[in-house]
Amino acid sequence: MNSPQHILEHVFGYTRFRDPQQAVIDTLVAGNDALVLMPTGGGKSLCYQIPALARPGCGVVISPLIALMQDQVEALQEAGIRAAYLNSSVAYDEVQAIESQLLYGELDLLYLAPERLLQPRTLSLLQRVALSVFAIDEAHCVSQWGHDFRADYLQLNCLHEQFPQVPRIALTATADKRTRAEIARRLDLEDARHFVSSFDRPNIQYRIEPKDNQRRQLLQFLQGGQQGNAGIIYCLSRAKVDSTAEWLNQQGFTALPYHAGLPADTRAEHQRRFLREDEVIVVATIAFGMGIDKPDVRFVVHLDLPKSVEAYYQETGRAGRDGEASVALLLYGLEDVVKIGQMVESSEGSEEHKRLERGRLNAMLGLCEITSCRRQALLDYFAEPLDKPCGNCDTCLEVPATWDASEAAVKLLSCVYRTGQRFGASHVIDVLRGSENEKVRKFSHDQLSTHGIGKEFSTTEWRAIVRQLIVRGYLEVEGEFQGLRLTEVCRPLLRREVSLNLRKLPAKTPRSQNRDTGNLEDLGPEDQVLWQALRDCRKQLAEERGVPPYVVFHDATLRGMVQAHPQTRSELLAVSGVGDSKLERFGDVFLAVLREFPKHE
Fold this sequence. Notes:
The chain is α/β, with parallel strands linked by helices and 601 residues long. It folds into four domains: 193 residues, Rossmann fold (3-Layer(aba) Sandwich), CATH 3.40.50; 194 residues, P-loop containing nucleotide triphosphate hydrolases (Rossmann fold); 102 residues, Orthogonal Bundle (Arc Repressor Mutant, subunit A); 71 residues, HRDC domain (DNA polymerase, domain 1, Orthogonal Bundle), CATH 1.10.150. Helix content is 44%, strand content 13%. The protein contains 27 helices and 17 strands. The two termini are 42 Å apart. About 2% of the residues have low confidence. Its cofactor is Zn(2+); Mg(2+). Belongs to the helicase family. RecQ subfamily. It is an enzyme of class 5 (isomerase).
C-alpha cells in the first residue's frame, strides 16, 4: 500500500497537506469514520480520494450533481487514476462496462448519485466487491432546514447498516452547529471524528456596497480589474438574470444566463462553456454553482441580497478555489430586505422556520451595514474569532466614515410613529421629505408635524438610515406590506439619552482598486507574455482531450511555472500541481514553451 504522502506527491503533484487533511486521511486509512466541515477550495476532495487509493478496494463517492461527477472524474483520469461515474446520463452499455470494471477490481473510485446508490441492484453489486471508503459529498443536503435538501440523502444511513466495515466520510463546505448535528444524526456519524476547518478564505476580498445605479457599479467593477476573468453574477429572479446577461453582452462581455426556467440542454451548454472556455461570465440564480469544480473563478457578484450569511458564504466561496486572489462583490438595497421578507412570510414553513429565516436575514443585513472588518464579522458568525482586522476587505482598505445621526434617527422614528407604524419605508420617506403625492394626501399625512422635516436628506440617504436602524434593532419590518414598527430599543434614543453614529454613504466615485485581484500586475511584462503562452498551450491540450483547461493544470500551477521557469523534467516536477502522470503526458509540451523564453535571474 502506498502511503498518503507518496500519493499526494506522485499522483496529485503536491508536497504537503493542508490542515487538517492529513488527520482526516489518517482517520479513514485506519478504518474510522469522519465528518468534515471545510470551506470551498479547502481541499475536501483529497480527504477521500487519497484514502481510496491508499486502502485496498474501490472508493465510492456519493454526489448529488452530475456536473460535479463529470468534472472530478475527468480530473482524476488526467492524473492517471482509474475513476468512473454512474448516473442517469450514462448509456446502458457503458453502465455494464463500468460495473464489469468494478467487479474485476479495475476501478479506484466510483461516483454515484444517491438515487442510483440506493437501488437494490447497486447495493447488491457493492456487496460483491472490496470497498475502501464511502464518501458522502455535499452532506448538508441531508438537512431539511437547508435550500439544498435532497430526500435521497435521508436514506444514506443504510451504508452504516449494510457495510459496517467500510469507513465513511461526510463532507460539507458550510454548516452551522444545528446542521452539523443533523448530519451526524441522520447519517449515523455521531461516533465519527469531527473535523471543523477554518472558515477563512484569505484570498477572497469582500466588498459590500449599497445599490446606487447598479449597472454602473457592476460595469465599473468589471472594467476595473476583471477583464478577461471568469466569474459568476447572482440575481434573485430569472427575469433579472436574463436582462443582466443580455446587457452584459451588449457591453462586450461573454455572459450566459442560467436558471431553472431555461431548457435543460441550454443550461447544460452554458455550464459546459463556463467550464471549458476562458473569460465566460455566468449570470444565474442560486441554482447554479453547487458542486461546480471550476478553480479559476476570479469573482462572484451578488446583485441582490442573499437570504442568509450561510448562503452568502457558500456562494462567494465559489471564487478562488485555486487559492489565487479573487473578489466577492455584493450590491444590496432596502428593496432586497422587503422582497426576501415577503418571500419568508408567504412561505409554507412553520412559524419557527419563519422566525429562523428572519433571524438569518437580519444577520445578513447586519454584515452589510457594519463599519468594522467584514471578515471578522463573517468568521464570528461561524464562531471562529479573528484576532485582528484582515486588511483585505472594503472596510479595511477604506475605513468607512461615520456621522452623528441622532437627530435624523429621531425624525425618522417620530415619523414612523405618527404615520401609524404600518407604512413601508418609501411612504415614510415621502412624508419626511415633504411630498404631497396622492398617497400622502389620502391619509392626511401632509398635515402631520413630521411632514417635510427631513428635506435635508435625499431619498437614497434616508433609505440608508432606515436600513441601519433595522440592523441595529430600532425598527422592525412587519406584515404583508412590510410596514415599519418601533421597538423598545428606541426609547433612550427618542428621549435623547444616547447618541447614534451611522455609516456615511460612500461618495459617488469608483471605489479604489487597492489590492484588486484577478489581474497580473504582480508579473512583469515578459512574464505576462509567458503566462499567456502557457495558457494558450493549456487551452490547446484541453481542446484536444475534450476537457476543461483547469483539468490539464490549474492557474496556480501555471503561475508556479512562470515563477520557477523550469527547464528540465525534474524541475517541472517540483512545481506544485505537477504529478507523475501529468509530467509524462504534458511535461515536454510545456517545457518546449518555457524554453522559448529566456530565464531571467
